[in-house]
Design a protein that fits this description.
This protein has 175 residues and is mainly beta. It has one domain (2-174): Lipid/polyisoprenoid-binding, YceI-like (Lipocalin, Beta Barrel). The chain is built from one helix and eleven strands.
Length: 175
């Protein structure tokens, strides 16, 4: 059995959402942590993954928008300071692909989500630490989690899409 910890200096946690249905805004979480526990050392089949992100660390590169996302209209950072994910399955689907299913909790609402994962491989770094890399992607409907703020332009266009893409580039270190 092995425990792996996310290396935040070599990882990214992003979300992407359509704005006005014509362009994509990317947001990041700057503060997060997570672990993966494997039963067969360097084999991730059947692993258990857990992850949390600090809502107050959201950044889209625009301070006013970030403040709105942290408000009760969206994530409500004051009332719900973290989002979390706990895997329910970690299934190998190909030579370097996995399906990771789990429970995502945002604003006190927990829903099942499915992420596709591409395994980047294993490597020993300059310090003798074994590391593994994963690129994960998935989609959620923000309305399902109570991120319900919505607006329509004068011309009838939707300001923010309900579909949110999740994009995680994760490097983990074997403890």
């Amino acid at each position: 059995m092995a425990k792996w910890t996310i290396d935040p200096s070599h990882s990214e946690v992003q979300f992407k959402v359509k704005h006005l249905m014509i362009s994509t805004v990317t947001g990041t979480f700057g503060t997060y942590e997570g672990t993966i526990e494997t039963t067969n050392d360097n084999d991730f089949e059947g692993a258990k993954a857990s992850f949390t992100a600090d809502i107050d660390s959201i950044s889209t590169g625009q301070e006013q928008r970030d403040g709105h996302l942290k408000s009760a209209d969206f994530f409500d950072a004051a009332g719900y300071p973290k989002l979390s994910f706990v895997s329910t399955s970690f299934t190998k689907t190909g030579d370097d692909t996995y399906t990771v299913k789990g429970d995502l909790t945002i604003k006190g609402v927990t829903k099942p989500v499915t992420l596709s994962a591409e395994f980047g491989g294993l490597m020993v770094d300059f310090y003798g630490q074994t590391k593994a890399g994963f690129d994960l992607q998935g989609k959620i409907n923000r309305q399902d989690f109570g991120l319900a703020w919505s607006a329509v332009t004068e011309a009838g266009g939707i300001v923010v899409s309900d579909e949110v893409k999740l994009v995680l580039n994760i490097q983990v270190v074997k403890n």
